[in-house]
Write a structure and sequence with these properties.
Elements (H helix, E strand, L loop, with lengths): L1 E3 L2 E4 L4 E4 L1 E5 L2 E6 L10 E3 L4 E4 L1 E6 L19 H14 L3 H16 L3 E8 L8 H12 L2 E6 L7 H10 L1 H4 L6 E3 L1 E5 L5 H14 L3 E5 L3 H4 L6 H7 L8 E4 L5 H10 L2 E4 L1 H6 L14 E3 L8 H15 L5 H19 L14 E4 L12 H7 L6 E6 L2 E5 L2 E2 L4 H20 L1
Helix pairs in contact: 2-3, 2-14, 4-6, 11-12, 12-13
Length: about 425
């Protein structure tokens, strides 16, 4: 395939270029001006539109995709832990394998329509642990999306559930590919005993992967054991390079510096932090390996980026638009590390994960205003087409090979069933 006439948004370099892009198989093989059409090659003219790399959502909870409309607790939760117990832990325990797959389809489609091509999902479904990661993978595979999955190991349901969650990772470890990977999931320090957290870290080391865990999201987590959180994790062997530490709201500058030195990824979820009133992190001390997630609040990284910018401005954090663009792009570096392919660039040798944008007319785009355009101009409504591994997965904002009317019926039925079980 030859894509011509587009304006290329190079998120890795923060530059804009006019060029054609040739794709063969799953990869970009040539980028240049006025490339000739080869025999039997399909040409797509996107004159007037923009082309950017697919985005990576670094921390998601797809199981929450059917949450909107679910029964809420009679008494308003007074703390983050009460919110978990009264809402989210009731939801995930009400899931069955069909609704897990439906949630992945619905949540994945939300993200795909926002230009996301890779999702790192942190899954929990305590009543149907066995087979749950395969159900998530099945839903995302139908959409053609790359994904890196884990099961959220926790002691909240007892040791048997904790061990079952750990065991579930084995179903994915021997099925890794450039389209799907696995990390070892753990809920958070305050729901994990020393033994359970050490088991998670040990399996991650044994399997040659890393951890995906919530860290100091709320004060409840940071102070739960009476021991310094990062010190505890270090004692238990859980500070593994390449891990994803989600939130890190209540870590000190010294602790954040330590994570930076170890090469640990820190995912920032500004909308979730505000929604749960957990506080504001020391963002100016976040490492270069900071990535962006949604924590289950949809799949729109444009909205997440803008929420992060405005809150940082309100807090006086001196992050420039360019720094925010770097955070958005860093997700591709994370995905490249975990999936073993080159993602996030529009250059020969990179995977053909591409997004065609059809922006509302406005000022000319340039190197100087590219980053600001992501903060003040672009929204997910500009996403028109999405390609993953050289295949169109979204065209004219419609998913390829997915009957959306049938999916709506399925989602409505599964949501009602889940909500009914929440009331039991």
């Amino acid at each position: 395939m030859l894509i011509t006439g587009g304006l290329l948004l190079n998120l890795d370099s923060g530059t804009v270029t006019e060029a054609d892009v040739r794709i063969a198989g799953t990869r970009i093989v040539e980028v240049g001006s006025q490339l000739p059409l080869k025999p039997h090659e399909v040409r797509l003219d996107i004159t007037g539109r923009w082309l950017m790399p697919g985005l990576c959502l670094a921390h998601h909870h797809l199981y929450s995709a059917l949450a909107c409309g679910m029964p809420m607790p009679v008494t308003t939760p007074a703390s983050f832990t009460e919110m978990l117990k009264g809402v989210w832990w009731k939801l995930d325990r009400a899931l069955d394998l069909p609704s897990v797959e439906t949630s992945a389809l619905v949540g994945g489609l939300q993200a795909l329509r926002a230009g996301v091509t890779t999702i790192f999902d942190h899954h929990a479904s305590p009543t149907c642990i066995n087979g749950s990661l395969e159900a998530v993978s099945k839903g995302l595979t139908r959409l053609g999306m790359r994904h890196v999955l884990c099961y959220e190991v926790s002691d909240r349901g007892g040791e048997a559930e904790s061990l079952a969650g750990l065991e579930e990772h084995y179903s994915m470890l021997d099925k890794q590919s450039p389209m799907r990977g696995v990390m070892i999931g753990a809920h958070a320090n305050f729901t994990l005993s020393d033994k359970s957290l050490a088991r998670c870290a040990s399996l991650a080391q044994e399997a040659g992967v890393a951890l995906h865990i919530h860290v100091a999201e709320a004060v409840d987590d940071a102070r739960a054991t009476g021991e310094a959180l990062i010190g505890r994790m270090e004692r238990l062997g859980a500070l593994l390079p390449g891990s994803i530490f989600a939130h890190c709201v209540h870590l000190s500058r010294t602790e954040l510096q330590h994570l930076d030195e170890l090469g640990i990824w820190v995912s920032h979820q500004p909308r979730s932090n505000q929604n749960n009133s957990v506080g504001y992190p020391k963002l100016e001390s976040f490492p270069d390996t900071t990535v962006l997630g949604t924590d289950g609040i949809g799949g729109d990284l444009f909205a997440e980026l803008q929420a992060g910018w405005f809150r940082a401005q309100d807090e006086g954090v001196p992050w420039s638009p360019q720094r925010w663009l770097e955070v958005l792009h860093q997700g591709s570096a994370l995905a490249s590390q975990k999936l073993g392919v080159s993602l996030g660039g529009i250059r020969p040798g990179f995977e053909a994960d591409l997004v065609v944008l059809d922006p509302i007319p406005g000022p000319p785009l340039s190197d100087a205003n590219l980053a600001a355009s992501f903060l003040f101009r672009l929204t997910s409504s500009a996403v028109r087409d999405v390609m993953v591994a050289g295949r169109w997965r979204l065209q004219n904002r419609m998913p390829c090979g997915i009957d959306t009317a049938a999916l709506q019926q399925r989602a409505a039925a599964d949501a009602q069933a889940v909500w009914s079980r929440m009331r039991d």
